[in-house]
């Protein structure tokens, strides 16, 4: 006797957006279905692959596939998942408003520890003040982080510099509010018609324009791009001190010279990192960021 009539039909799909209680899941067929997680399952985010079951009009998320990676931030109180299963992170910056080096450094550490390739997109390249942003990026340029200048209002320029990088990959646009993430998205995926601050200003609505993370398909390739709301804080409470050091690639060689295996690279004698700092091989701003982040980790209760 067949048991098929009692088995729910399950299908696999990818979460393309989340809205508090429900999610939109895209099936292999291209159909997009509104789904509720079964039970109290939380922690699902954009980019996740899930199994869903449908029964009439209702669809439930039954299971979450193992993730390749997950980018998130966290502080004492809560953690916030940005996206899962991404190939590369585009940190979007601009000179007006001027980007924060601290937040950029944090995003780079989070990418490094999640094994996600980071790029910096220096947007608003049309503005004369762009050279000021470039000067601030020097420590990261020296480190080898690729910095790509874009002018989001010129979609041909955006395509020219980004198409080769985006092809067949899943990329996340991340950055502070007003840097131009949604404008870049619109240049690449005109059908997205994402609201930007240009619209918000015209409508007289609030400053933070994008309110939820969303995944889009790029035309002319199997690549995907994810737009996200601007962030103002980037806590890294989920990292261990070892993770933190792993996020500072320029420390790796120097650490071999530390006398103590559990060196925190602060006050210990014969510390390779401090020696590299003094010799000018490690940028003082990067070392200061490391100290700040380590202090922050140590002052937080573990959970
Ligand atoms: N001059 C100039 N302005 C730009 C450029 N790209 C975006 N802008 C403007 O910058 C403002 C912010 O752009 P958005 O795309 O809304 O920024 P966002 O990063 O998506 O902001 P949130 O959604 O709040 O995180 C808008 O007024 C855009 O028109 C650019 O390349 N040059
Ligand atoms: Mg936006
Ligand atoms: Zn050390």
What is the structure about, briefly put?
By secondary structure, this protein is of the alpha/beta class.
Please provide a written account of the structure.
The protein has 303 residues and is of the alpha/beta class. It folds into 3 domains: 4-64, OB fold (Dihydrolipoamide Acetyltransferase, E2P); 70-227, P-loop containing nucleotide triphosphate hydrolases (Rossmann fold, 3-Layer(aba) Sandwich); 241-299, Orthogonal Bundle (Ribonucleotide Reductase Protein R1, domain 1). Helices cover 28% and strands 25% of the residues. The protein has a 6-stranded mixed β-sheet, with helices on both faces. The chain has a 5-stranded mixed β-barrel with strand order 1-2-3-5-4. A two-stranded antiparallel ribbon has the order 6-7. β6 and β7 (79-84) form a beta hairpin. α4 packs across α5 (181-188). The longest helix has 16 residues, at 284-299. Mean pLDDT is 91; it is low at 1-6. It binds guanosine-5'-triphosphate, magnesium ion and zinc ion (ZN). Zinc ion binds at residues 258, 263, 265, 268, 271-273.
If you compute it from the alpha carbons, what radius of gyration comes out, rounded to the nearest whole angstrom? 21 Å
Each distinct ligand: guanosine-5'-triphosphate, magnesium ion, zinc ion
| CATH topology heading of the largest domain | Rossmann fold
Q: Which shape, going by the Cα principal axes?
A: globular
Structural class: alpha/beta
The low-confidence runs, each spanning 5 or more residues with pLDDT under 50, are: 1-6
Mean pLDDT: 91
Topology:
Layout: E1 10-19, E2 22-27, E3 32-37, E4 49-55, E5 58-64, E6 70-74, E7 79-84, E8 88-93, H1 101-113, E9 117-122, H2 130-136, H3 138-143, E10 147-149, H4 155-166, E11 170-174, H5 181-188, H6 197-203, E12 214-217, E13 224-227, H7 241-246, H8 252-255, H9 272-278, H10 284-299
Parallel strand pairs: 3-5, 8-9, 8-11, 9-10, 11-13
Antiparallel strand pairs: 1-2, 1-4, 2-3, 4-5, 6-7, 12-13
The structure holds guanosine-5'-triphosphate, magnesium ion and zinc ion.
């Amino acid at each position: 006797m067949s048991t098929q009539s009692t088995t729910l039909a399950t299908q696999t799909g990818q979460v393309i957006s989340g809205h508090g209680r429900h999610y939109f899941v895209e099936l292999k067929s291209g159909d997009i279905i509104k789904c509720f997680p079964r039970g109290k399952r939380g922690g699902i985010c954009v980019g996740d692959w899930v199994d869903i079951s449908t029964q009439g009009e209702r669809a439930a998320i039954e299971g979450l596939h193992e993730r390749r990676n997950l980018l998130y931030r966290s502080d004492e109180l809560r953690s916030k998942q940005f996206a899962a299963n991404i190939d590369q992170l585009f940190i979007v910056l601009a000179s007006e408003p001027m980007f924060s080096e601290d937040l950029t450094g944090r995003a780079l550490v989070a990418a490094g520890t999640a094994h996600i390739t980071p790029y910096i997109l220096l947007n608003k390249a049309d503005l004369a003040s762009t050279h000021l942003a470039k000067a601030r990026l020097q420590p990261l340029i020296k480190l080898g982080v690729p910095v790509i200048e874009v002018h989001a209002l010129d979609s041909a320029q955006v395509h020219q510099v980004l198409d080769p990088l985006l092809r067949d990959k899943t990329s996340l646009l991340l950055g502070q509010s007003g840097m131009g993430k949604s404008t870049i998205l619109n240049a690449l995926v005109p059908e997205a018609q994402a609201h930007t601050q240009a619209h918000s200003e015209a409508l007289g609505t609030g400053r933070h324009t994008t309110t939820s993370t969303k995944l889009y398909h790029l035309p002319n390739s199997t690549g995907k791009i994810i737009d996200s709301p601007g962030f103002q804080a980037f806590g890294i409470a989920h990292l261990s001190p070892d993770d933190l050091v792993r996020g500072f690639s320029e420390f790796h060689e120097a650490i071999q010279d530390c006398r103590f295996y559990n060196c925190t690279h602060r006050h210990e004698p014969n510390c390779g990192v401090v020696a590299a700092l003094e010799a000018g091989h490690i940028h003082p701003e990067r070392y200061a960021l490391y100290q700040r982040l380590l202090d922050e980790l140590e002052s937080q209760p573990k959970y």
